[in-house]
Amino acid sequence: xxxxxxxxxxxxxxxxxxxxxxEDAACGRTIDVVNPATGERLTTVxxxxxxxxxxxxxxxxxSFDNKAWRGMDPSRRERILWNVGELLLKHRDEMAAIIxxxxxxxxxxxxxxxxxxxxDCFRYYAGWVRKxxxxxIPVDGPFLNYTxxxxxxVVGAIVPWNFxxxxxxxxxxPALACGCSVVLKPSELTPLNALKLAEIAAEAGVPEGVLNVxxxxxxxxGEALALHEDVDKISFTGSIATxxxxxxxxxxxxxxxxxxxxxxxxxxxxFADADREAALKAALWGIFGGKGExxxxxxxxxxxxxxxxxxxxxxxxxxxxxxxxxxQDPATQMGSQISARQMDRILDYIECGKREGAKLLAGGExxxxxxxxxxxxxxxxVFSEVTPAMRIAREEIFGPVVGAIRFRDAEEAVRIANGxxxxxxxxxxxxxxxxxxxxxxxxxxxxxxxxxxxGFDSASPFGGYKQxxxxxxxxxxxxxxxxxxxxxxVAL
Length: 492
Prior knowledge:
By secondary structure, this protein is of the alpha/beta class. The chain folds into two domains: 16-262 and 468-489, Aldehyde Dehydrogenase, Chain A, domain 1, CATH 3.40.605; 267-457, Aldehyde Dehydrogenase, Chain A, domain 2, CATH 3.40.309. Helices cover 37% and strands 20% of the residues. The strands form five sheets. The protein has a seven-stranded mixed sheet with strand order 14-15-16-13-12-17-18, with helices on both faces. Helix 3 (92-103) packs across helix 4. The termini are far apart.
């Protein structure tokens, strides 16, 4: 059994971080931040609205125009970004505790999948500061032609609640490396880590106004940021529905640039010749890691018919043994869902799967054992006999629910894998290297993992095809999102 839940300990109320100062929302309203493992309030943060966003954008614009950051010597900016990463590691335990308490994920996941990657991201982009440059181009006539790669300006970064710190770093770090100023809007469910990031950035030496944090709801603070005429670019990770609103906001405001990393319904494809143990581990953690609240989760498990039944039997047995409970307990393997609303949404999808004829092999209910009844826990759930037409095979559940689909051969696997509006990620498990590369070429997804799952690195780009979005986070490709290219002609 997991240890007793750590009950809510009072935390100081959060405040907006604007122009290097901690401020309250002008309206005076606040948002409760809830510990999803206990259902109790952790603290409050300001409920920012348009006038607060105005102040944050004005601070970002002033810092950009006066070149407080982009005009700083590149070597100094490089050191500051590196120091942000080092300070994140120094505060790793504190930051992991904050994320675990506001998100419900385990401390191990908070430290290993949020804090450590965020620190690495800042250090990676620190290395790019002195490498972002233009080129000279041979053109006809007596001219010198060269390009300048300049920062795009004020960036609005809107981040989700599932990996709140690492995804914030995916946006803030490259934007700062390019010389931009940023207004960061975290999810109202997980705002505390973003406020701590602002504190760390200031300690590292990021000038006032260069990184601002506004806490608030999407329809108020998020919309105000999206509509703002003085925001040059929005980087967003979240739902397709919100992305459509951002596109509309861009069209009716200043045509600000957008990069969008949206949902996924990723196929995890297991051929009969796969390394069975490796594929089983990946199938388990590819859906139950992060309690399934992962955009790249392997929620569609495609298993070749020769091994389908035995593979699913073993996967279900392992799912039933997972330790679900107190996220603060080192023995816990899966924590709570982010909110009561998300838990209910997951449970509704489970009921839909049952009605549509999928076979429930494990889980399928809210987990209310012991003190978990006070939180928002769902049992790890495995369905077999799923068909591509079922809602649980088509729609993103964003929870610990996997649906297994049989396939005969590679052609059918590709057809099923691509038969979705999404195209974020996929995986292929086989010992046949030719088959693996052929599948990687035919699957329409931004990332394809071969004999592994959820491989991420700050140097490797991540983003989607189709309705999983456009633009890329991470790697050198992200720098394109935060720079403009200027062509300069000199008559000789």
